[in-house]
Amino acid sequence: MRNAALHGHKYAIDSVVAASALGYSGSRIIVTSDLDDMTMLCGDAVRCVSV
Questions:
Q1: What mean pLDDT do residues 10-25 have?
Q2: pTM of the predicted model as reported, rounded to 2 decimal places
């Protein structure tokens, strides 16, 4: 969250999902309704797809 300049409980669940995805090797895709925040948290390492 700090690296993406996000803070507060609003981003806590997003950061756990992002950390889980970043912890896996190989191809990673997150399907989300919050594309902007997830992209900020994951960067280019995870493909984020909007619902």
A1: 88
A2: 0.76
